[in-house]
Write a structure and sequence with these properties.
71 residues; mainly alpha; 5 helices; 0% strand
Length: 71
Amino acid sequence: TKHMRVYELLFSKHLPELYAHLNKIFVSPEHYLLDWFLSLFSRSLPFQVVVRVWDCFMLDGEIFLFRTAVA
């Protein structure tokens, strides 16, 4: 999907060594990104961080999901 491509572009640009390592061991964003986005990170981050992510998502829109995923 377009979201996967955008994330991969951002990930490879900002964290090229980690991106290359995950590709080398066959871990693709399809393994984790959809769950992160659908749950708005509520299953993978502490509650206080999730609340902040949701606030920023409401304020900034979906771009904040990409920022959080790369972070």
